[in-house]
Amino acid sequence: MKKNVLFLGLLGLALNAQAQSGPWVPVNTVNSQAFAPGYRVTDVKTISPTVAWLVAEESSTAGYPNAFFVTNNPAGDQFSFGTTIPANGAQNFQTGNISGVSATAAVAATYPQAGGGGEIIRTTNAGVSWSKVSTASQFNGNIGGFCDFVHMFSATEGVALGDPTNGSFEILRTTDSGATWTRVPSANIPTPLANEYGLTRSFFAQGNTIWAGMGSSVSSDPVRVLKSTDKGVTWTASPVTTLLGGINRLAFKDANNGIAYSVTVANGAVTAVNLIRTADGGATWSAITPVNVNSGSFFRYDIDAVDGRYYSVGQRFPVSTPAATAYDFGASFSTDGINWTNTNRSQGYFAFDLVTGATTGAAAGYAGTATDANGVGGIFKATNANIIAATRDGALESALTVFPNPSATGIFNVDLGSNLKAGAKLTVMDALGRQVKSQTLTAATVGSRTLALDLSTEKTGVYMLQIQTEAGIATRKLVVE
Fold first, then answer.
1. What is the fold, at CATH topology level, of the domain defined by 394-480?
2. How far apart are CA 4 and CA 265, in angstroms?
């Protein structure tokens, strides 16, 4: 059973909407080693601003993800291309994800095109060759085994998650760079719920901690999140969340604050996108509703988080009617999972992965779409590009003033300047990224140029004021004494 809940078959619209890439620069345009009929990216693992691995599949009805790209030059803008077929393993498995630790060393989770089973495969020569490193008894499809994903915490330690067998999730660990894998004792893992299993690519890792989104064979079942804080040695589980059937993706902007979402599909069409948020490290979750406007939307193909911000790429939901517009595709960021700011529009990336950039507020990484018929392009790179600064409203940033600041009473006077238009969104977040105030600025407020911002009921501490306009955002730090 294929359980990749990204639904790549529903991504066709994005292929015809590739205009404004914002901070993302097209790469793979020189010395491409891919070939006809072209490929589309399904997974990205960024190791550094110049090193990345990407999973790809043929852009055809018969295509399945059994190919990869890996950076092969110091600038990180040229790529080697090959297939993830191990000499000693299955020859027709598809690849769920690749977890690289360098430009030459990586492991990958693979599984059959139909039914259960799976393998962990490994390369130490930049994908020139791959070898199966899991054993015949691991991820055994005859007893319900399935390899969902693999992740390397370091060059030596990693974890792989599989569906339940013999009454327990099949979770494997390696401490020798992926050469061998050992099953985690069932006593260290929560007992699976009825109908519960893992999902390909539905995980997020931060330091020694990893979270995994669960799925259910019953679409109406609420699902939960598994978590390990010791590189997969021991695990806990959240209570069931409000998401039903499965968790597509999840991301944590710090150790406590995270978001997750699910996509509901009926009769080949997306009918709902539901988000949840946690502020206690994934112990509990609550439903949230993102604001989708032309200046900022939540995009549903993939999410990530780095340095206190969430990022999303792809297509928003619902799309414009009667026909999709450039605003329906793009990339965005958020500090609370509700209010989003677009960093580009019309380019709907299928997958991406970010790491910390070289400067404050910067993020670096790679994103993927589809190559042309000759295997050229299809990969974008943001190298130390200040994705946040790229979307600042410069005029508002210069005009915006707040006084008194610090405030002993929690009352602030905000001078908006003379260029702001009605409809701008004002939000205030606390130090944990939780939204404590939100309002849309009316024509009367904008016309008066000032407003009184009342945080008198909030605790003493640091807050972040953000005003979002069609041109971007402006922010100010507020201090309540």
1. Immunoglobulin-like (2.60.40)
2. 13
